[in-house]
Amino acid sequence: MGEQRESVQAGLTGLQKPRIRQVRRTQSGFTLIEIMVVVAIIAILGATVVPLIMDRPNEARVVRAKNDIASYSSALELYRLDNFNYPSTDQGLEALVTKPSGDPEPANWNGSGYVKKLSKDPWGRDYLYQSEDGQFEIVSLGNDGAEGGEGFDADISNLDAN
């Protein structure tokens, strides 16, 4: 048994470690043609998708103007419930933020106001307010800032049918 052990040990020392093949790395990357194909695909997608997205900001502005006008209309209804009438055209929407002076004098103006602050319309202009014969109108002149118009240039009013 001792001889067998010696021959096994001799055999182990005679073994050689397996050689690790070194793989030569070649430089890899994209060819000019592949890059040009990708750029062309992006350009085609951009040319078809961008025009569809470009109208969305205008639609969002119209929606925001309608929401602002609805919010101010609700605040004016609360104002009327407290004070028995709407603010005059001269008092304007500012009567929702600070207590107005002049006629009609607010009987029970809410000390904290009816809105925290007045915002400009989405195009950066003040909302127009007019009160007459127990009715009111709040208007944004739309994208063009002029009365009338069509599409995104159209006026937006609380009197419009939604």
Textual characterization of the structure:
The chain has 162 residues and is mainly α. Helix content is 40%, strand content 8%. The protein is built from three helices and three strands, in the order αααβββ. It has helices spanning 2-14, 32-54, 56-83, and strands at 128-132, 135-140, 156-157. A three-stranded antiparallel sheet has the order 1-2-3, with helices on one face. It starts with a helix and ends in a 5-residue tail after the last strand.
Question: What's a quick, concise take on this entry?
Answer:
The chain has 162 residues and is mainly α. It has helices at 2-14, 32-54, 56-83, and strands spanning 128-132, 135-140, 156-157. It contains 3 helices and 3 strands, in the order αααβββ.
Poorly predicted regions are none
> How many β-strand stretches?
3
The arrangement of helices and strands along the chain is: HHHEEE
| Beta-strand residue percentage | 5-15%
State the share of residues found in helices, binned by percent.
25-40%
Major sheet: order of its strands?
1-2-3
Can you tag this structure with a few keywords?
single chain, 3-stranded antiparallel β-sheet, 162 residues, 40% helix, mainly alpha
